[in-house]
Specification:
Chain lengths: 129, 305
């Protein structure tokens, strides 16, 4: 590997650091809007069009949501200033137990290995066995 | 990517850096439309940085293949003739169209290309979110027929670089629609926003590099519509900023599928993204069909039709 390439790579890496720092400065204080019920339903309608939402539970910090649709659970978890959505079996979601105020759902997806939601009370009393 | 005596991408790197900085700063002060997010920007730029190094690993093999093919060329095309540059511009752009279409429509090549589409944002940094595995995916072989025709490998490499540099500036929301004659012929920010959108009606459209005419000719053109704003990213957006997962998630997904059902190996590799033996997953075609059915059954959709 020649010296010119290494210098070019080092300069580019420094520039990357600068641009990321600049993006952090430019976007500070501009996180994703927290989810309320209407926003969560709108996200779910986009992600799972045509699917009926039978129950919706918002994360305590507004940074995610869990929904039931038949035998499926839909989860929305914060991803930067947006959200990532995944589906898992409802029985699996129902069986999860919160720890330290967080509900961790394993998603069996290498691109979204788990969703962590600030849901301290789970399952809801009405659904608890 | 193999590099010619002049590498347009290297030459343009200072321009890339300056314009990303400009877009971030002007957006910060509300002077243009652009949405940045720190982790997303970091992933895009580091993907681009490492991509340039990863490309070197296979550059030797791809260049050697091109040189070997060129030694068996059908014609000798001079690098100094203007007509030769016009011809290589057109043929390279046509090759790019089919490379890009294959990269979206066959999962093995989508695995290498998916990284570029994995941001939920669409800004100049997204242009630099490039693959680490393009070389091993072997799509560089699609350009070998140009060397067989008689274009010098260096000439092809330069034109590939020109195309990449051209495609940089179209990754922006800051530019609306350009005058109709330009939109008719060239790939523009508007056309490419559609390409990066995950809305079902926009999926697998506008594969062009420089000339949008290929999409018009081959039936893959979709204009950007005022009534449907682009939503960017993947059908199933990433739930992590872990750069190793960003780079390799589709490759790992393919491997997991093959291990689980080895007798469907060909389907897992060469089926469209979202293909599965039982049809339980979503392909673009399935998503488009479902979208069309919902549209048809909604009162607003029937009215529009």
């Amino acid at each position: 590997m020649d010296t010119a390439y290494l210098i070019q790579f080092a300069v580019s890496a420094t520039a990357v650091g600068l641009m990321v720092a600049l993006a952090a400065w430019a976007t500070r204080g501009r996180g994703a809007p927290l989810l309320d019920e209407a926003a969560a339903r709108a996200w779910l309608a986009d992600e799972f069009p045509g699917r009926q939402i039978e129950g919706l539970w918002l994360a305590d910090d507004g940074r995610g949501a869990l929904a039931r649709s038949g035998e499926a659970a839909f989860v929305l978890s914060r991803m930067g200033d947006g959200y990532a959505a995944r589906q898992l079996p409802w029985t699996q979601a129902l069986a999860a137990r919160p720890k330290d105020g967080r509900l961790t759902l394993r998603l069996a997806d290498v691109a979204a290995p788990r969703a962590v939601l600030a849901i301290a009370a789970w399952p809801p009393k009405a659904l608890a066995a | 990517m193999m590099k010619g005596p002049i590498d347009p991408v290297t030459l343009a790197t200072p321009f890339f850096i300056a314009t990303v900085i400009l877009e971030i700063v002007l957006a910060r002060f509300g002077k243009l439309k652009a949405r940045y997010e720190t982790s997303d920007t970091a992933v895009s730029l580091v993907m681009g940085l490492i991509s340039s190094a990863a490309g070197l690993l296979t550059a030797g093999a791809s260049f050697a293949a091109a040189v070997w093919i060129y030694q068996h060329r059908l014609f000798t095309i001079p690098m100094t003739a203007i007509w030769a540059w016009v011809l290589v511009f057109l043929l390279e752009d046509l090759t790019y169209y089919w490379f890009h279409r294959l990269s979206h429509e066959r999962r093995i090549w989508w695995a290498a290309h998916v990284n570029h589409h994995s941001s939920q944002h669409y800004n100049l940094s997204t242009a630099l979110r490039q693959t680490w595995t393009g070389g091993v995916a072997g799509t560089w072989a699609l350009w070998l027929p140009l060397s067989l025709l008689g274009f010098p490998p260096a000439m092809v490499a330069i034109q590939k670089g020109v195309s990449l540099v051209y495609q940089y500036w179209i990754h922006t929301e800051a530019i609306g629609r350009l005058p109709a004659p330009i939109e008719a012929v060239f790939n523009t920010p508007s056309h490419h926003r559609v390409h990066h959108a995950r809305n079902p009606r926009y999926l697998d459209r506008n594969y062009a590099g420089i000339l949008i005419v290929w999409d018009r000719m081959f039936g893959s053109f979709q204009p950007e519509l005022d009534e449907e704003a682009c939503r960017y990213g993947l059908v199933h957006n990433l739930g992590t900023f872990n750069i190793v997962r960003v780079a390799f998630h589709e490759w790992i997904g393919i491997a997991q599928d093959i291990v689980r059902q080895p007798r469907h190996t060909l389907g897992w590799l060469f089926g469209p993204p979202g293909w599965s033996p039982d049809g339980s997953r979503d392909t673009s075609a399935k998503l488009k069909t479902a979208w069309a059915a919902r549209r048809e059954s909604s009162p607003a959709g029937r009215k529009a039709a």
